[in-house]
Each structure stands twice: as structure tokens, then as C-alpha cells.
Design a protein that fits this description.
Number of domains: 1
Subcellular location: Cell membrane
Strand order of the largest sheet: 2-3-4-5-9
Pfam family, one: SdiA-regulated
Largest sheet: 5 strands, mixed
Keywords: Cell membrane, Membrane
Order of helices and strands: HHHEEEEEEEEEEEEEEEEEEEEE
CATH topology: Neuraminidase
Protein name: SdiA-regulated domain-containing protein
Strand content: 35-45%
Main location: membrane
Structural class: mainly beta
Length: 310
């Protein structure tokens, strides 16, 4: 039997080979080759095009991993902004709850969720209603919420079967409200990864048919959360495995992205297991990552130069 190839390789060459293989695997895992080509094209966007988009390269982290007090025993997932209350909402999976937060990450209230198995996404949609995605049950439940709500039972509200019965724990996690087209956007985590839309027909929560959306150039390995920006008509796609926040236009084409790795975009440390993203009325971006940490990204205020006096 011939001797293994490695036996005849010098140690230095063997180390080099191992490094090359590891680098190739990393590039493939994070899809760095596609990201690099896109980054080269991204730099050619004009100022007008950048201003018409969300333009993620203009954002910097201004809050670094704020701990969500009182949720240490839970796992937060999903994030949404409520313009009516100027607050955030997230859900927890270990002990199902709907949690309301201030924009600074302070817990305002916790609402127990009954009849939910694995809530992974939450979104404010319209007229005081919210939608919660239950990944294991492959369902979306739509309900109303007010200041007096103390608990929620999935059996009391309309729900929709999202299909993909064989998805297991690789089902739908991302949900966003497209207010321009009055539809819900849904992100399937992976196996296969995909973006979908669902129209809400009326106030009772009746819905249409799940429609696949173009997303073939979304160079991410998974989708953990979505957020829609009505000002640009673009969608934010959060990827935990790719450590990336990506902006897609109406046709599902990438427009811009930022890395969630420490040392970049103002981050002191990497965001671990990014699970939720949303934008507020001022355009600030909020990301929640495990273990229950909140991050905020903002665009620096433009510098106003003093007028010259002749």
C-alpha cells in the first residue's frame, strides 16, 4: 500500500497546504468571493443613488451590546419597531414571551405567549396589529395589541400555515411589513433559503397565497431577520452565519452591505448569533443578538460648514 502523500511533505509545506485549504473553505462558507465582487461594484454608486437607498456603509455602531435586563434566562429572536409607541418589540423562544423595549434597550413589559412553540420573528404590520412567526409550527399569527394586553393565546387569533412541512428548525424566521404594497415579507432561514410575500386581504387577517420573491444574488448563507424601509422601498436582510446585514432593492438585487465582525463599522466586538433587525422612524438600525444583547447603528450627522463672509 503506497505511503500517504503527507508523509513525504516537508512540515512547512504541509502547514501551507492546510492554511490554503482552510482559507478556501472559509471563503466558500462566508461566500467572500461574491461579497468581494459586489463590494467593488458598490463603490461605483453615485451620491444620488446612495441617498435614494438605505446605504449601509454610512452606518456606524453607536450602542455596543446593551444587555436586556431580566431576559437572561431567555433567548430573544426577531425585532420590530412600533411607530405608534416609539418602542421596540422582540420575542423569546425558551419561555415564549412578547417583550416591549425602549429604544435604549430597557424592558417595559413582558407578555406571556400561550400556544406558541418556537416564536422566531415579530413584526408590527398595521392598525395596531402584530404578526408572530412560529418556526416549528410553520405558522404566522396576526393579533391586535394595546396598552392593556397582559397575555396572548395563539388560539384566539387568525393564523396562516406557511408550508414547508419538512423544514424542521430551518423554516421561516424573518418577517417584515411592506407598507407600500400592504404585504408581509417572509424570510426562510435555509434548506432552501428564500424570500416570500403574503398579502393581507382584510382586518381579520385573511391572507392570499405565499409568493416567492427574487433573491438569488443575496450572497448570505441564512436569513435570520428582515426589515422593510418604506422610504427607499428596500429590504434589510440579516444573516447570522454570514455575519452580515444586506440591503436589497425591489427586484431583490443587492445594493449595499455591512459586516457584523468586530473592528468594522464601529463594532468593538463581533455580533454573535444576530437574530433580529429593525429600523426606527429616524432611520436608526437596531440589531438584537444572543445572549440578549442590543446594538444600534446610526449615520453620523452631516457636517455643516459655517458660511463665508465676504
Amino acid at each position: 500500500m503506497p505511503a500517504p502523500l503527507f508523509r513525504f511533505m516537508r512540515p512547512r509545506r504541509l502547514v501551507l497546504l492546510v492554511l490554503l485549504v482552510a482559507t478556501a473553505l472559509l471563503i466558500n462558507f462566508l461566500r467572500l468571493d461574491e461579497r468581494a465582487w459586489f463590494w467593488l461594484g458598490e463603490g461605483r454608486l453615485s451620491v444620488v443613488e446612495q441617498q435614494a437607498s438605505i446605504w449601509l456603509p454610512g452606518y456606524r455602531a453607536v450602542m455596543q451590546g446593551k444587555s436586556l435586563s431580566g431576559l437572561e434566562q431567555d433567548e430573544t429572536s426577531g425585532l420590530t419597531y412600533s411607530p405608534a409607541t416609539d418602542t421596540l418589540f422582540t420575542v423569546t423562544g425558551k419561555h415564549p414571551q412578547l417583550v416591549e423595549l425602549t429604544l435604549g434597550g430597557e424592558v417595559l413589559r413582558r407578555i406571556p405567549l400561550t400556544g406558541f412553540s418556537d416564536p422566531e420573528g415579530v413584526e408590527v404590520i398595521s392598525n395596531g396589529r402584530l404578526a408572530i412567526i412560529d418556526e416549528r409550527r410553520r405558522s404566522m399569527t396576526v393579533f391586535s395589541l394595546d396598552a392593556a394586553t397582559q397575555s396572548l393565546d395563539a388560539g384566539d387569533y387568525p393564523s396562516f400555515d406557511l408550508g414547508f412541512a419538512d423544514s424542521g428548525n430551518k423554516g421561516f424566521e424573518g418577517v417584515a411589513w411592506d407598507s407600500l404594497n400592504q404585504r408581509v415579507l417572509l424570510g426562510k432561514e435555509r434548506g432552501p433559503l428564500g424570500l416570500f410575500s403574503l398579502s393581507l386581504a382584510n382586518e381579520e387577517g385573511a391572507v392570499g397565497t405565499l409568493q416567492a420573491l427574487p433573491s438569488k444574488r443575496a450572497f448570505v448563507r441564512d436569513i435570520s431577520s428582515l426589515s422593510f424601509d418604506a422610504r427607499s422601498g428596500h429590504t434589510l436582510v440579516l444573516s447570522d452565519e454570514s455575519r452580515l446585514l444586506l440591503e436589497l432593492d425591489e427586484q431583490g438585487q443587492p445594493v449595499s452591505f455591512i459586516s457584523l465582525i468586530g473592528g468594522l463599522n464601529g463594532l468593538q466586538q463581533s455580533i454573535k448569533q444576530a437574530e433580529g433587525v429593525t429600523m426606527d422612524a429616524a432611520g436608526n438600525i437596531y440589531i438584537v443578538g444572543e445572549p440578549n444583547l442590543l446594538y444600534v447603528f446610526s449615520k453620523p450627522a452631516p457636517v455643516v460648514l459655517p458660511a463665508q463672509v465676504d
